Every structure is written in structure tokens, then in C-alpha cells.
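Revision sheet: C-alpha cells.
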Amino acid sequence: MERVDGARGRTIEYEPTGVKPLLVAMKDRAELVVDLAYSALLHDSDPIAEEVLALEAEMDVLQLQARMNMLMAARSTRDAEQLAPVLGMVGAAEKVSGAAGDIAEVVRTDDELPGAIRAALPDATELLARAELVESSTYAGRTLLDIDLETETGVRVIAIRRAGEWLLDPDRETRLEPDDVLLLRGPGHTLNEVYETATGEPYERPTGPTPEIADLTRAVDTIVLMKDVSELAVDLAYASVLFDDEALAREVLDLEVEVDSLNARLEAWTLRAAGAVEDPVSLRGFLHLANSAELISDAALEMTEGILRDIDTHPVIAESVRESDLAVRRVPVGQGSRFAGRSVRTLLDSHPGVSPVAIHRTDDEWVFYPEEGDRLGAGDVIIVRGTWPATEALLADAGEA
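Predicted:
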């Protein structure tokens, strides 16, 4: 059994492989490819954009192999019902990588973007930074396992450029060498420190001119918000699958609707701004980026389809989410928790390896990407992202292990 990948002319043959490792690989790559795509955009880097497209091609192969193996595994009506949501997860992860590929194409085809868009991207919730490792750094010559960067700081090394070659998605055994160029992603309060430790210099966010046209300013702000909300939707979608949580799945639906609304407003602002700029065609990059963010939120909603339709989800989905590199966890704040009545900053200081992405209040209100000064109340539920050890430690500290 084989199928031709027409987009790239490759012949993909059926290989008897477990579905779970394929889903794990697709989830990890879907998250990586989005990080790299926005890194390519931020740094206006054609080489990073090329790596995004290579990863997208790899995802095409993985999704075909996953579909073939699931078709071979379905032997009854019951199997088909349980595997349908798995097919949805496969298609959603592929859609995420396709959207990242579209962002990479914006970089490669030199679609013009006002300098303000690259200056605004670092205002997103998690920062992306390019750091050149100096020989005097305490990270030089040590493995990522030895440094334990993610657990200690919440900052991830998503890729390394060494001697002109890219090492994508480095693992814990990867050793950092002087002159490595590290692509970092993490919360601002710790990324600054990691960047300075790696380079010996303080991190300076990219700057650019503020658009003089009000509608263009709104469009720039909306792009950054769409980026954050669409990525959050993916996080919540994976969390809803892991915990079989219909409430989280419905929040993903609400976020998808919000992204659609933001996209409609961005289109209107961009069209109005077109009459006031010298070259209206230069604004098309806005529309391409907005469409990519919308595709990512659509993909997140597809991941939750089995939960929203009350279809029993195949255990392989939850297992694949649990075995991936990063965890998204629900952390209840109990009455006796030391975090009750304290700020998010208290949580960050004691557990720097986690990044809060949302707070679900007792009155059913959601606070997305909370600020350090936001207060946590007894009965709140925090959605956090981080390594499994870091999130497990937070759960134990919150008294809900």
C-alpha cells in the first residue's frame, strides 16, 4: 500500500508503525514549526523560513503514515468511531504546519511588512530571541539536561545553528558549544536573564517606527493578539484532549470565534489604511499573517471535535499528548493553597519553569495570558505550560498533586 505525495513528488509507502509515536512526533513538530515560523518573521531570516518549509514537508509524510496505519487498524465500527477523532488530530496538526509554512512564505517572497510589525512581535506573551553563545557563558560546553533550562526558567532552545547547519528541536542530551546561535522562546521575565547569560549582553527588543496611520496601528496590534490567541487555542485544545474536559473544548470554540472576529476587523482596518499609504500592495503581508493565525485557531477547534461531539476519544490521543516534550496542565488553587490571594508573580518566582497561559475564575471568567500582577483567588484554575517535571512540581506545591 503506497500513496504519492503529489506536492513534492515523493512516494510514501506504508510502514507498520504505532500511531502513538506518530502523533507525538506530529504534536512536537507542529509546535516547533510555528515557533520557527515566527522566528523567521521576527528576524527576517530566509534560512529559518527554509527550515520551516522542510519541517512542513516532514509533517506531510508523518500525516500520510498516520492515516495509513489508522486505516489498517480499523477492524470494526467501534474502531472507526474511536479513530475518527484521531484522524481529526492528524489533520489539525498538518493544518498548523501548513499555516506556519504560509508565514515562512511571507518571509521568503519578501512580502513587505511595516517595521512596526516586527517591533510589535516581541510584545507577544512569549518572546522569541536569537542569541549567539559566547565562550565565557556558563552554558558553553554543557548539555541542555545539565543546564535544565526549561524547568529552571521556562525558556526553550527551539533550534541551534552551528557551523552553518541547523539543529532543529534539540533534545536534553544536546551540548551547547561556543558560537552556537540559539533560537530561544520563553516568558519575558526569564528570557532576558537567559539571553544575557548566553551572550554576555542585555536583551534589547527589536524596535521600529510606530505607524502614523491609526488603522495601521490597530492592524499591527491585532496581528500580535491573533498570534497569541491562536497559539493559546492550540494549548487549550491539547489540554482538553488530555483531561477529556468539555469546558476547555468549549473555550477553544469561543477563541476560534474571537480570532474570526479579529480577522474581520483587521481586514477592515487594512483596507481603510490602504488609501493612506504610498503602496497599498505592501499591506498584503498583514492579510497573509492574519489568515495563518486563523488557520491555526481552526486547527485547534478540529482537535476538540471528538470531545464536543461526545465521541469517546481513543486513549492513544491522550497518551501521545502526555508523552510529548511539553505539558499543559490544570492547576486548581485550593482554599489552603499558598497561592490563594497572591499574585502570578509569586507563582513565577517559585516555579520559573512554568508559564501561566490562562486563569479560569470562579465566576467563569477567563483571563488569558495573565500579567504578573494579576491575583489568584481560592477556587481559580490556572492553565500552565512547561516541562512535565516543572508542572508536576507546581501541582504538588499547589496541594493538588
